[in-house]
Amino acid sequence: MTGILLITHQGLGESLVECVRHVMGNVPDNLKVLSVMADEDTQRKEKEGRALIAQMDSGAGVLILADMFGATPSNIARRLRQPGHVEVVAGVNLPMLLRAVCYREQPLAELVQKALQGGRECIVLMGKEDDSNVATGCADN
Amino acid sequence: MTGILLITHQGLGESLVECVRHVMGNVPDNLKVLSVMADEDTQRKEKEGRALIAQMDSGAGVLILADMFGATPSNIARRLRQPGHVEVVAGVNLPMLLRAVCYREQPLAELVQKALQGGRECIVLMGKEDDSNVATGCADN
Asked: Rounded to two decimals, what is the model's pTM?
């Protein structure tokens, strides 16, 4: 089963995991957070990230979800990337995370696509005229 | 100036605001959070939301950013919607929030589009081959 590692500014990853707990009733073992504080030693964080990945990787690889491309957490995530085995999607939102958790038994390449789609499709302007489409887009959350 | 109101599961909105503080160095006055705990009285929350909107609305309206379409916070947000004056975008991520904060002096209709674009465009698979495009997509964060 693919591991899912959130790498975010401090607090955000933990909050997202609490939302998973609320929505799904529990937090899967293979969902972890690497939280990055302001002015933290990024090399130390990278080392912590490698240790977490080694611990989570059952052979199926790890999907890293970072909060924002170009920020420190995503720069750390980029250095942890192993093409085809540890992939990084930036711009995580709650629908993306839930989609990834729901499909974590799929191969990493497919899980990456599910995460990208889940995140993008569930960014919607709410209004009576949109809701039938939106419900379809987000149905598997 | 348009107000920005995050309506999320407890903890997530506050964490996103802390990320804004970290990235931008401060939190604008017209950015607020309505945090929804599990099993909270949604009618009371809706009332709190109306009070917050009244407080934040300088005439330019309010953009509500909810964490996930179909979840309780977005259902509360839907009931606070006033088409053209209080609009709701669901699926908030950090790039969307930062984009909205940066463009909050624009009219609400344009701010809605900036938020949708910012959120969607900055959901990216990280890899050497993508980064030049991504940097453009997220350049104004």
From this structure: 0.93
